[in-house]
Structure formats: C-alpha cells, structure tokens
Amino acid sequence: MASGKGVLLKADPIAGTFQEEIKTGVSALPHKLKLVGILATSSAPSRYYADFTRKQCEALGIEFELKETGAAANPSLAEGEGVEQTIIESNEDDNVHGIMVYFPIFGVQQDHYLQQVVSPFKDVEGLHFKFHYNLYHNIRFLRPKTLLTTIGVPSSTEAPMDTESPPEGTVKSIIPCTPLAVVKCLEYTGIYNRLLPYGDRAYGKTITVINRSEVVGRPLAALLSNDGARVLSVDIGSIQEYTKRPKAADSAAQRYNPRHVVHNSQMTLEECLAVSDVVVSAVPSANYKVKTEWLKDGCVCINVAADKNFEKDVRDKASLYIPAVGKITIIMLLRNL
Amino acid sequence: MASGKGVLLKADPIAGTFQEEIKTGVSALPHKLKLVGILATSSAPSRYYADFTRKQCEALGIEFELKETGAAANPSLAEGEGVEQTIIESNEDDNVHGIMVYFPIFGVQQDHYLQQVVSPFKDVEGLHFKFHYNLYHNIRFLRPKTLLTTIGVPSSTEAPMDTESPPEGTVKSIIPCTPLAVVKCLEYTGIYNRLLPYGDRAYGKTITVINRSEVVGRPLAALLSNDGARVLSVDIGSIQEYTKRPKAADSAAQRYNPRHVVHNSQMTLEECLAVSDVVVSAVPSANYKVKTEWLKDGCVCINVAADKNFEKDVRDKASLYIPAVGKITIIMLLRNL
C-alpha cells in the first residue's frame, strides 16, 4: 500500500450487518423477548457492560432486566453473594428467555461452576459445557432435547455438518460469543472464503491465536481449525498446532465428526507470526504487546483483549486491524436469544 | 498433655476402617468391578498415584486397568494428547465401572472441562458438575436418572436429608473424594459427634479451611457447614464465613434444602485460627506454613496438601495432627465404584 498503513476496521459496520436481521426477527415474534443480566460485583467494567447490553437491547426491541445482587446491590454484601440463587430463579422463570451473567466474579474455577448452573436453554453466551463439548467435537447442530442430557455422545449420523442450515428437528448449537465474533470478523474481511464449502471456509489459512483459555482461546482455535485453518495456539507455557482431522484418516476416527487434532509445536512465537495470515490476541494484560516487526506483511490483526495487545504501529505491517470485537460479541449474544 | 505433644495420626487406621467393608461388598457382587485409570502426562506424582491405585485395587479385589495416552504413552506426544477420546471410550465401554483421570493435565480451566466429559455414572472422584451442585445445595440423595439431566432443580421433597440411609429409589450423591476424606477424619477423631442428628454432627465446631478451590476447599467448606459447623474459608484474597441456613430463616428459602450461606468475614487469619477447633490446610505450595503459635490449644490439624502446610512443632499446640489424607481419599474413591 502506498501509505504503508493498513486499514483500521471498527466493529460497528460488522455488527451492523446483523442488527437488521435481529430487529426483523424479534419484531416478527408473537411475544417480546426478555434478557436478564445478572450483576453481582462492584466491578466498573461489568456495570459498563451491563449498561451497554441494555442500550443494545433497547435498540433491537428486546426487553432487558438487570438483576443486581451481592456487592452490586449493596456495598456491605460480598462480591458475588446471592448470584447462584439469582441464576436459579431466572432459570425457573418462564418469562425469561436469556440469561447473561457478568463475569469475572469469583475467579475461573468457581465462575466455571456457575456457568454450568445457567440453563443451557437460556445460555446466550454459549458458556455451558454442552456447547463447548459440541464445539470441540465439531457438532454443529443438535436436537434441543439433547441439551437436557449430561452425557454427549458424538455421532456423525445425528449431527451432519456439511450443510449450513440445520436439518429438520435440529437447531444450531450455540457457539461461545467471543470466538463467534472473531469468526464473523474473518467472514467480513474475506479470510473465510464463501466460495469454499461450508465447514471448510478457512482452508489454506494459517492463524495464530494468542491465549488458550476455555472462554476464548481454546474454543476459538478449535472453531477455526474445524473450519479448515491451520491454527497455532500460543499460551504462556506452550505452543500447539490445531489442524482438522481428515475425514478418512483412520477407521477408528470414523464414528466421530471430522474435527481438529492437537499436537505440540516446536515453533517459536516469532516463527508462528512470520507465517500467519491472521493474528488474534486475547491476553488480559496491559503490558502484553505483539511485536509488529514479527508480523507477516499484509496480515489481518484482531485484538480481542480489553487491553491493546498490538503495538501502535501494527498497521505498518497489517493490511487490516480490528482493535475491538465487543460490539460484535454482544450482537452475537442477542442473536442467540 | 504432660509431654506437650499432640498425637500424630496416620491415615492407615482411618482408611482401614473402610477396607473390610469394601472387600466384603466387592466379593458379594456377581461380576468383578473394573476401574480404569487414565494417565496422560509425564508427571511423576501422577504415575506414582496410578501405581498406588493399582495396589489398592488389587488388595480389595477390584480390577484395575491403566490407560496411557499422550506424553505418558510416548514422550514425543504432547502432555494430555488423546485424553478426551480415551475418556469417551471408557464412558462407552460397559465393562468399565469407574474412571479416574490423573489431574492436573492442562491447567484448571481445561481440566474442569474434561471433568464434565467423564460420565457421572462412572465418576468415582465426584468431580462432575452434578455432584458439586448437589453438594452445594445439600442434596444428599438422588434418583439415578436425574444424573442424566443437565439442569438441577433443588427440591427438598425429592431429596430428604434428615436420614442417613437413602430413601427408596435414591442413592447417595457422590461427594468429591478429598473433602469426604476430611469428613471421615473428623468422624474418626470424634469432631463429628454421633450423638447429634445426621446432618448436624459438626454443630458447635468452628473449622478453618485454608484454600477455596473447586476441587477441595470450597466443597469442603460447604460440606462441613451443611453439617452444622461454622467454617472460616481462607483464600489468598479473602476470608469468608460459611454457616448453615436455618431451616425456617425465611419463607423464600423454604423451597431449598437448608444449606450453607456465605458471607464476607472481617476476621484475620490469626483471629480465625485462635477460635478454630479444627484447621484444614490444602495450599499447593512448599513454602506455605500455618503458624503454630496462632493455633488454639488442643485443636485438630489436618494437612491435605501434597506439601507440608504445618510447621514441624504443630503438635506443641494441636492435640491431634493428621499429616496426609491421600490413603483415605483413595479408599473413598473405590467405595464410590
């Protein structure tokens, strides 16, 4: 590019492509949809996010109720106090169609427990174990009643995956919102190629994902590699390579959906970045920065973290830079209602 | 005490009280019980624990098969590689009655995911979400079919709790092994008073639990306070107090089982230890030590961590000191088969 500067891509136009679809869908329903937000901490970013959810809901014609408990309701109460009971009450309330809990509350372990308490029928964020299980096993559609069972038996006959629309009697399995928002960015930017068959649209692309948490990094790496990409998953302690299991790799694998396999990688981060068409970073630290000089010319960089994980001059190398995906995440979430 | 020295209590005699019960039960069965251990890492303590499991199984007449995958099977493979598929195969194998996975493998988040993949019908460790949910809600018995559903609706009519033996059609809900091992220590040492009604046998006791993980500290604190104890739960960031919800506290709570409530505590660790009849420590660090001088005279100290969390002179204050509970844990686990 003449200027040597890549394009700065804000989340609004990408989110915008879904807004009309949701508005139309919502207004066609016989009843109003209701989302409950549960705020249990004194965290300022969580309250900001709750306010933002309300604004988005109002713009789309969705009813939003914020339930405050614990330190959010009364500073003398503990952080998180009463949150589990509030979730259970919302699970049992037939007028509530979706539940969003503002994490983090207690830390990853206890928060993970709470994510399982939210009914999978009302889990708009896609944080329930069942959805992660389906994602990791590349099970894209599900019969709603299977959401009720704890045990997931992968079966390719029950869950065909080479079609974009759910077969009769099934619905799309919910994909965790933030990883899905990244995929929507990659569709918008053309990294996902619509000329390729559904389920393989990232074929030929190498993508580095920095972070391997169960909320963002690992589901994202699985999702992208299930769609055909070669994914280099970078965490503090190790680098792994996620690639799709070939359909006819071995007969024992035949009963499972073709899905990602994971191996250790001997590559360094510098080597990963040098070959990556896309770099996604989701490191929850203000100090972490991806080195611009290591990036491949013309790559696409997506910052998922709340802090900026890319250096200021990232667009000297990147052809496209998406600094934040939060607005897309919330639209994905409302789409799950 | 004249010597000023408390009694050192090894785990063997406590574990021993259950060995005969299990042996007799196992030999009365028409088929042999089979436990599968899944070792997926190169961790030496995990392999040691697997060998120990085998020995214990053989002594009790239980068949044990160790399935090795990932780095445990072949050093060129990644830590944990193939573990999820090995779990699924064992879930589906009707000849397998129990599954034990040697954690840690990937870290708390991904390990927590794997714990949900193990069928709750074969989860001898009690790590499945359902068992934690029941424990936190003080649901002591369950109808086996409810294990199949993802959503747990607490209902005191379905799960009476003032009796020691399961009502018809129900079985005991599995309690995570390590917390249960601690309760067995407290029963053995008389801290749990059998003269008190079942479900309230720790009433009147103050217990400090140092650690609040989802595997040990939090379920243990909930378990002890559900049994009537006042529990001071100490974690790096905060101190909380767990107490039992009174049966008739408020009408809204009536539909739930009487169970623990959690509040922030303003006490310091020193103040907690000064009033505690029992101190349980489970801090995974060789450097962490509970100060003997802070302990209450005649208290009971239980070390759950792999490292020694108490100072050498702990028995100058403690009347009883149990340095390790691992042998009891494994017996609890085999009892769950």
Question: How many helix segments of chain A?
Answer: 9
Overall pLDDT metric of chain A: 89
Q: Name the largest protein-protein interface in this structure.
A: A-B, 40 and 39 residues
What is the CA-based Rg of chain A, rounded?
20 Å
Written overview of the protein:
The structure is a homodimer of 337-residue chains. The first copy, chain A, is an alpha/beta fold. Chain A has two domains: 31-126, 3-Layer(aba) Sandwich (Rossmann fold); 176-329, Rossmann fold. Helix content of chain A is 30%, strand content 16%. Chain A contains nine helices and 13 strands. Chain A has helices spanning 11-28, 44-60, 83-92, 108-117, 129-136, 177-188, 217-226, 269-275, 326-335, and strands at 7-8, 34-39, 63-68, 98-101, 141-142, 171-172, 206-210, 230-234, 239-244, 260-264, 278-281, 300-303, 320-322. In chain A, the strands form three sheets. An eight-stranded mixed β-sheet of chain A has the order 1-13-12-11-7-8-9-10, sandwiched between helices. In chain A, strands 3-2-4 form a three-stranded parallel β-sheet, sandwiched between helices. In chain A, helix 7 (217-226) links the parallel strand 7 and strand 8. The radius of gyration of chain A is 20 Å and the shape is globular. The N and C termini of chain A lie far apart (42 Å). The relative contact order of chain A is 0.14. Chains A and B meet through helix 3, helix 4, helix 5 and strand 10 of A and helix 3, helix 4, helix 5 and strand 10 of B. Chains A, B: This is Methylenetetrahydrofolate dehydrogenase. Chains A, B: One of its GO terms (cellular component) is cytosol. Chains A, B: Pfam families: THF_DHG_CYH, THF_DHG_CYH_C.
